[in-house]
Amino acid sequence: MNAPFINYLLSNMTSIKMDITIKAISRPSDDNRVRDLIHRLNDSLITISGESGSKGANLDDFAQENALFLIALHDDQAVACGGLRPISSEVCEVKRMFSLKKNIGLGGKILSALEMAAKQFDYKYICLETRKKNDNAVKFYLKKGYEVIENYGIYIGREEAVCFRKELK
């Protein structure tokens, strides 16, 4: 993705309720803010579903070509994150979506930025997985236009998982 586009995109991502900056992190595994958010995400997922979800997501996956990891900063503190990584030349996957601040639109801002980036990477579809028990996430993705699909990849045969896909237009 070209640097001017990502800078334009991120500079125009604002929140109505608080001053937020969204920043692309080129090496998320080396960033302490990212590691802290992922630790908090893992704890949250353990509370919701009994599993952290960390087995299927390596932070180094977001440093490869046609991948992206974003954090939302408020007063220089990381408050939300999300990333996308390639599955194929036409399909990417959203991973590690999380926000410390609930119900103020941060998840939607991160997801929107990831979808815009996915289009710039020429992906045709964006997909993801969450746990059926994670009612808030399931409702969030349905509201954002994602459709439930058959489980794919490592989620095939896993009854606790629900997979989604959205065509990028």
From TrEMBL:
The record places domain N-acetyltransferase at 20-169
The record, for InterPro entries, names: Acetyltransferase_Enz (IPR052777), Acyl_CoA_acyltransferase (IPR016181), GNAT_dom (IPR000182)
The protein here is known as N-acetylglutamate synthase-like GNAT family acetyltransferase
Provide the organism lineage as a comma list.
Bacteria, Pseudomonadati, Bacteroidota, Flavobacteriia, Flavobacteriales
